[in-house]
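Write out the 3D structure for:
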Amino acid sequence: MGKEQDSARGLTLEPWTVRDGGGVNFLEYLGWREVRCVFSTRIGGVSSPPFHTLNLSHSVNDDPCAVRENLHRFWTAIGAEGNRVARTRQVHSNRVNVVSSKTEGFVGDALITRAEGQWLAVSVADCVPVYLLDARHMVVGMVHAGWRGTLEGIVRACVEKMKSEFGSDPAQTSAVVGPGIGPCCFEVSQDTAARFEEFCPGSMSGGHVDLFKANRSELEKLGVECQACDPICTSCNEELFFSHRRDKGVTGRMLAMITLIADVR
């Protein structure tokens, strides 16, 4: 095993577990028996710098052949079929898409479904991914919450969409927040800081935004139970994660994904 893989295995990322699927490292949250929640790392792909190595996005000017190989490796590692992975063109909005059978053509920053075996995926490289589960109605949601989407209320919009489409009760819905840029590394302008302090008092500290706190606060206001989870900073952990802020906009992307397990009813 190479140096990067050794580094990944040595990190403490609770409540996430580092998994190795044929050399492809990814994180998995094992706290929900009804679903699988995974988060890719940058380890185990074929892309060259600055996208080294497991870039999973075609939108960052990486070699398309390398991205296709990376996706194939990642699907194999997590046991997913590529044609059962729904993705969306992310626009930093509060727009939520309902996924049934099609997996393409979506625009927005959240996906929800009650289709078993259907993966929902969002692309991230600092933005906070929020995983949602309504175990009573067997509904899941996957949210891309960057600073713009957070202020637009994307988490609230997703929880409300789960309620209107599938009857989910926020008080019976759970959430876990995946890796994203931490308050240690996310300094913003005075104007943006003022907006966050109004949106979530206490989310600012010395010009730095705590996206984890802002989104957890919004979930808790709705009555959603947030699983205990210390912030994992994508910017601080260079060997494991891509970071748009740290890498000055030239970097790869990870995928945050959730799916309902078909045999747990």
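Residues 3-260 form a domain with the CNF1/YfiH-like putative cysteine hydrolases fold (CATH 3.60.140.10).
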